[in-house]
Amino acid sequence: GTVGLHPELRVRLLHGDADTAPPPEVSAAFATVLAEAGYDVELVEFEGGHYAPGDLMFDAVMGLVS
């Protein structure tokens, strides 16, 4: 597998609580696997479906480049 190959990467996941493609539990499990592999990972859950609000996407990107 490739998880853990580049632990210096910072990962931000955004997932809507009403999203079913995939459901939020999948992102939560993925975040756990990444954290256990040593990644700097953060999962942000928001109210809504498959598309994250622009302000959350902006904040996530800015948090990665700062």
Give a verbal description of the structure.
This protein is α+β, with helices and mostly antiparallel strands. 38% of the residues lie in helices and 21% in strands. The chain contains two helices and two strands. It has helices spanning 24-36, 54-65, and strands spanning 10-16, 40-46. The protein has a two-stranded parallel ribbon with strand order 1-2. Strand 1 (10-16), helix 1 (24-36) and strand 2 (40-46) form a beta-alpha-beta unit. The protein is flat. It starts with 9 loop residues before the first strand and ends with a helix. The relative contact order is 0.26.
Cα-atom radius of gyration: 12 Å
Order of helices and strands: EHEH
The outline comes out as flat
Main beta sheet strand tally, sense and closure: 2 strands, parallel
Total of DSSP H or I helical runs spanning 4+ residues: 2
Overall pLDDT score: 92
Low-pLDDT regions: none
Number of strands: 2
| Strand adjacency order, main sheet | 1-2
Task: Please describe the structure with a list of short key phrases separated by commas or semicolons.
single chain, 66 residues, two-stranded parallel sheet
Brief overview, please?
This protein is of the alpha+beta class and 66 residues long. 38% of the residues lie in helices and 21% in strands. Helix 1 links the parallel strand 1 and strand 2.
